[in-house]
Structure formats: C-alpha cells, structure tokens
Design goal:
This protein is mainly β. It is 0% helix and 50% strand. The chain is built from no helices and 21 strands. The strands form six sheets. Strands 4-5-6-7 form a four-stranded antiparallel beta sheet, with no helix packed on it. A four-stranded antiparallel beta sheet has the order 8-9-10-11, with no helix packed on it. It has a four-stranded antiparallel beta sheet with strand order 12-13-14-15, with no helix packed on it. The chain is globular, with a radius of gyration of 17 Å.
C-alpha cells in the first residue's frame, strides 16, 4: 500500500513482517514483526499509521513515528482486509468468519458489527472516499454490499457476480464501485442504483484485486491468471 503522499510504501506477506520503504530508495527501512502472515495493509489518511491484518485474527495499528501500537482483537478467524474512514478516526475490518467490524482507531473499541453477509467469508472492504459512513464489502456469498458504518443498515446489494467477490474499490468521486470476482470478471456499478455499467472480461481466472487511478479514468486488476 502506498502512503497518501506517495513517499512511502508498506508491504507484508507470509514472513509475517511489515516493512516500510521510503521513495526514492535509500532512506531508512522500518520493519515490524507479527505472529502470522500479513493479509492486508492500509495507511491512515494522515500517513502516520499503518493498519495490518493477519491470519492470527488480529489487526495491528502501528504508529511509524513513535512505534506505539493499538491492537484490535474482535475477530475470531483470519482478518482478510482493513480500511480507514476518510477522517482517520475509525477502521473497518473483515474476516473469514463472516463478520465486518467498525472500530475506534484510538483504542481498538468495537463500535459496530455488520452481519449482512451471513456466515459467508467477507474478503474485501473499502470505505467511501467522500462519505465517512459508507462502506462496501465483498463476500463469498457472491455479493458486494454498501452499508452504513454507524447503523449497520444495508443501502445497496450488488448481486450480478456468478462467483465469490474477492476485491472492491470506490471511484475517487464516490459514485461508482468496481468489484472483482472468482467468476473471472471485474464489474463497475453505480452506487446509487446498483445498476451494472461495465463488465471487464480480460481475465480467464479469478480476479483478486482492483484499484482506480487517481483521476478515475482507469482501473487496474490483478488475477490468478498471473496478469
């Protein structure tokens, strides 16, 4: 994950280590060791903290200036993804046990549990870039759902995929969502109406991840087909 000022990148993997590299290279490389593989990484909006999810069912917030940590312990299975609210006050994390949680970034206190996906694994989460209370999650129930971070109310359910939803991303203007699926497609849809706008069929295996360009004109996707 890139920091918002494009000056640092944080990465982690099956070695259970998170590293922060400055760009251009040559500066200090910061490292922090966890117990099990790193599943997801997200920078706080102000670029001072990193949230990392792990197969140990925990989410760690690491302040790269002070080394201080906040640990969220509300999940019972692997935490697969995490996202910050635009104001940096809360995080949303999702787990293989079917839960999506919203919690306080300062103290790790749980504020809300979202159960709209039932018992299906929740694989991906993204917070609206323009709304502090709108979250989208993607699940093994083949849906992506937009819901309220304060009330847990489901606003929209996108059910046009024929397979597991592995990745989700909001457009920079908050009007559209792209979702990636094991059905080998990435699909763009309207947040307000849930209407499909575009189906990308360039992959021939599961699409794992998607991301919008900063100007909202392009999407990048990565899949099990090694492209």
């Amino acid at each position: 994950a890139w920091s918002h000022d494009d000056k640092q990148i944080a990465f982690g993997g099956s070695d259970a280590v998170v590293q922060v590299q400055s760009f251009p290279p040559g500066g200090q490389v910061l490292t922090r060791k966890w117990e099990k593989n790193i599943e997801g990484i997200a920078w706080s909006p102000d670029g001072t903290r990193i949230a990392a999810t792990s197969a140990d069912a925990l989410v760690h917030i690491w302040d790269i200036r002070t080394g201080e940590e906040v640990v969220y312990q509300g999940h019972t299975k692997s935490v697969l993804a995490v996202a910050w609210s635009p104001d940096g006050a809360r995080l949303a994390s999702v787990s293989a046990n079917g839960d999506a949680h919203v919690w306080d970034a300062a103290n790790g206190k749980r504020l809300l549990s979202y159960t709209g996906h039932g018992l299906s694994s929740v694989n991906a989460v993204a917070w609206s870039p323009i709304n502090n209370d709108h979250i989208v999650t993607g699940s093994s129930d083949n849906t992506a759902q937009v819901w309220d971070a304060r009330t847990g109310q489901t606003y929209r359910t996108y059910s046009k995929h024929a397979g597991v939803v592995e990745g989700v991303a909001w457009s920079p203007d908050g009007k559209y969502i792209v979702s990636a699926s094991s059905d080998t497609t990435a699909q763009v849809w309207d947040v307000t109406s849930s209407e499909p706008l575009l189906k990308y069929e360039g992959h021939n295996k599961t699409v794992w991840c998607v991301a919008w360009s900063p100007d909202g004109s392009m999407i990048a996707s990565g899949g099990l087909d090694a492209t």
